[in-house]
Amino acid sequence: MGFSVLPLMDFLARRAFLAAGLRPHTISLPSDGSGEQHTVHYWAPPGEPRLPPLLLIHGFGPMATWQWRRQVGPFSRHFHVIVPDLLCFGASSPSSGSPPPSESAQAAALAALLDALPGLAPAARVAVAGTSYGGFVAYALARAAGPERVGPVVISNSDLLKTADDDRALLDRAGGGCARTSDLLMPLDARAARRLMELSFYRKQPIALLPDFAIREAVQKLFTDRREEKIELMKAITVGTNEFQLTPLPQDVLLVWGEHDQIFPLEKALAVKRCLGENVKLEIFKKTGHVPQMEDPDRFNEVVLGFLLASQKEKPCST
Questions:
Q1: DSSP helix/strand/coil, 249
Q2: Whole-number Å distance between alpha carbons of 97 and 53
Q3: ∠ at Cα 63 (61, 66), nearest 5°?
Q4: CB–CB of 157/268 below 8 Å?
Q5: Residue 137 belongs to what H/E stretch?
Q6: Rounded CA gap, 245 and 267, in Å?
Q7: Is 89 exposed, middle or buried (0-12, 13-18, 19+ CB in 10 A)?
Q8: Which of 235, 259, 303, 314 is the most buried (most CB within 10 A)?
Q9: Residue 171 contacts residue 178 (beta carbons within 8 Å)
């Protein structure tokens, strides 16, 4: 029997979520007027919310529980934390026969989830935080639902001005071994996985010390599941196409960016900030890459909680 790191990582993530009082749930939600339904899996405390709601939206990559493992404990002391699997990720699935979901479709599914949560008032104002691809969805949700339903908003390392040229530059930074960004973001061998880690993190990660066979086994289990579905989902992203236009948000926005992000370089943060409007604060994390919530969780939690709690005092989130 070979060694696998995945059960250990999954155990640590689940333990953190359970210790924070969150429990797994699954719900069926209407997808459109056809009667078909999405299946959405999410973590949240059982029962009616006693604290202001906070929605954490994961990025493109490992499970949501891995991406937000270091946040759910500190955040749950102040908020009713909700961590969904986006459609095509984890245990969430779009309705049968539906097209690959765009960011707007993902946002619509999350809006439906919020509407269906037990005890959450229809007019409750929900704080939202999204990382990377999850930032695309957070922006779409904030814009579609408006400030009466969504706000404040945290967008972490999410290039809302991404273009095809940016995708080509990313592949160049990766060393030219990948034909598509999906190949880079869903590696199937140890060499490609190590390169993705180098692009995503500023500091060398302990998992990179594992032997090739262990890394290869891990990424094949992670990225073969629903692979074609996720490739089609990446093609459905509207950011960087004529279908998408970045406009200012009326909500208070915290833009978080790792100084050494090689997926979405820091200069893009400055451009995004200029386009998002006057209510935007940019926080740059030094010695950090694409996932500051994982690489510098203590500072990330301090900065994000400070922003959310200050905004809550100005305009309280109802439950």
A1: coil
A2: 32
A3: 105
A4: no
A5: helix 133-145
A6: 19
A7: buried
A8: 303
A9: yes
Phi-psi region of 132 (alpha: psi -120 to 50; beta: other; left: phi over 0): left
Dihedral of the CA atoms 93, 168, 269, 130 (nearest 10)? 10
CB atoms within 10 A of CB 2: 6
Q: How many CA atoms lie within 13 A of 242 on its CB side?
A: 0
d(CA 136, CA 234): 12
Asked whether 58 and 83 are in contact (CB, 8 A), the reply is: yes
Model confidence, pTM: 0.95
- The single-letter code of the amino acid at 32 is D
DSSP for 175-186, please give it. Answer: TS--SSHHHHHS
DSSP classification of residue 45: -
Residue pLDDT tens, the chain, 319 long: 455 788 888 999 999 999 999 999 999 998 766 677 999 999 999 988 999 999 999 999 888 999 999 999 999 999 999 999 999 999 999 988 889 999 999 999 999 999 999 889 888 999 999 999 999 999 999 999 999 999 999 999 999 999 999 999 999 999 877 889 999 999 999 999 999 999 999 998 888 888 898 888 888 888 888 899 999 999 999 998 999 999 999 999 999 999 999 999 999 999 999 999 889 999 999 999 999 999 999 999 999 999 999 988 776 655 6
Q: Which residues pair with 283 in a beta bridge?
A: 256
* Pure H helices in 177-265: 181-185, 190-200, 212-224, 227-235
Reading the block at residue 91, the tokens are 């245990």
Give the angle subtended at the CA of 130 by the CAs of 113 and 91, to the nearest 5°: 50
